[in-house]
Write a structure and sequence with these properties.
217 residues; five-stranded parallel sheet
Amino acid sequence: MNGNAWLEVRDLEKRWATAAVAISFDLARGEALALLGPSGCGKSTTLRMIAGLETPDAGSVVLAGRDLTRLPPAKRRIGMVFQDHALFPHLSVEDNIGYGLKAAGMGTRESRMAAGEWLERFSLSGFAKRRIEGLSGGEKQRVALARTLAVNPDLVLFDEPLSALDVELRGRLRDELRSRQRELGYSAIYVTHDPTEAEVLADRIIRMPPLAVRMAT
């Protein structure tokens, strides 16, 4: 094990009847890593195992010195940004950002004040009362990232965060995501099938091969 690692993924494995994904890596605090590979190679499954959304068949996940392998997602201090942003359409922008804070016990007034600080930081001042359906793709991406970072996670996971966007917006948000990560210093893992995206977003890239074929037992 690397004593300087912020995240340690050791022999993490998910097995199916005819295929399996297995991976090990370290991530330093403040580092950005990309998991690059074709669809169906196990990238998102790896992310979901780290987040606790998928139960591994073997291996371990240690973050900030805590073994998370058997902990539920809510106790892992991991944030996740999805391809479709997963924002709540019935909530305003400020209440989307403050959702995790309220879930952790913060009052409505305080969570909205905290959301206002994130809105300003993400150049969204004046958007507090806006509805999600009125936002552009780039604005939704910023709100999703602000909501994730507002709860101060130890690690942020991105599952193909830009793939649903058009080429021009994808390029612009790719650069913005990278600058935000450097500015705020959070540790991040990106899943992508796009080599250019991986090179821009990450300090280091792990290229994942197609799933290993295994004999059914």
